[in-house]
Write a sequence for this structure.
């Protein structure tokens, strides 16, 4: 089974969207305790934008005995700012103790960082047809790998633990500077029949391969959209969904459990289910305003701040439970 992990987002800023507007150390401790004791996870990927939040959650998780995969998400920053942010976070991680921290120095930077693709914002960089052009030309890979070599050197200068990078499937990473191969992997219409085969190719690098993201949204049809299933929120009214969708927590649970089964069979060194909670996308009784359908979260968040487990939460807990 390898690493039994889940992603814990302390708040990621993407343009005007903030995934966790309010952060509280007490709530983080409660959530991370649930991740350890009820989900039976042994590792957590702590991700987000704000360094203070990242380090606070990392410290709590380490106190609880969890291994931390520390993952900065400084979206829409340029190369210099991304590099400086990762180095400062790495130095802070070294002070916390590198023995139980894996530093994911970046995440899907072709899309999230300015400079590799044209465009100042994520929406501009992922303009229509961009993915098809990237698959055809692959011209993003050379500047990406040049930056990753520099990034790895910068963080290793101040951090003595393991270092890796959370890659997108569209990226062809030179894994030489890193200790582990990490890929954010989803299943949709394009890779439905060869998901396992595509993951298996990463084993050729001769390093442990970890799925740093795997997940599915909880509505019918989400299993066909994979990593783009979140894109159902109305662009003009961010408090509504852009269409009629049918909530289906059983589908979410079945899809993610099948993906974890395949990853185990293919020899993955572990997986992190994306994601624990999405407070900015609350569940509501009105289907048109049930923003939780646009999230990959394994718990339902509510407008008043509390959350409740989804079907996937219970399925994951049963999978991870000690024999």
């Amino acid at each position: 089974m390898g690493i039994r992990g889940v992603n814990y987002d302390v708040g990621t800023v993407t343009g005007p969207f903030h995934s966790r507007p309010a952060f509280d150390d007490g709530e983080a401790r409660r959530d991370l305790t649930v991740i350890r004791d009820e989900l039976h996870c042994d590792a957590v990927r702590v991700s987000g934008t704000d360094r203070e939040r990242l380090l606070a959650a990392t410290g709590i998780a380490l106190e609880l005995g969890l291994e931390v995969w520390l993952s900065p998400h400084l979206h829409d920053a340029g190369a210099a700012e991304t590099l400086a942010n990762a180095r400062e976070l790495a130095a802070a991680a070294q002070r916390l103790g590198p023995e139980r921290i894996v530093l994911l120095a970046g995440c899907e930077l072709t899309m999230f960082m300015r400079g590799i693709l044209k465009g100042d914002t994520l929406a501009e960089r992922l303009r229509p047809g961009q993915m098809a052009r990237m698959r055809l030309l692959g011209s993003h890979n050379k500047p990406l790998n040049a930056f990753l070599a520099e990034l790895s050197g910068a963080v290793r200068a101040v951090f003595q633990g393991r270092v890796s990078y959370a890659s997108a499937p569209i990226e062809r990473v030179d894994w030489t500077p890193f200790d582990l191969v990490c890929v954010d992997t989803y299943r949709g219409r394009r890779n439905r029949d060869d998901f396992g085969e595509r993951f298996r190719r990463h084993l050729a690098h001769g390093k442990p391969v970890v799925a740093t993201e795997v997940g599915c949204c909880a509505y019918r049809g989400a299993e066909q959209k994979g990593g783009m299933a979140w894109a159902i929120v109305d662009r003009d009214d961010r408090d509504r969904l852009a269409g009629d969708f049918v909530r289906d927590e059983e589908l979410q649970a079945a899809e993610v459990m099948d993906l974890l089964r395949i990853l185990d069979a293919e020899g993955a060194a572990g997986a992190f289910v994306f994601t624990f909670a999405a407070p900015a996308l609350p569940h509501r009784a009105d289907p048109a305003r049930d923003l939780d359908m646009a999230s990959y979260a394994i718990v339902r968040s509510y407008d008043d701040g509390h959350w409740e487990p989804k079907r996937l939460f219970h399925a994951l807990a049963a999978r991870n439970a000690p024999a």
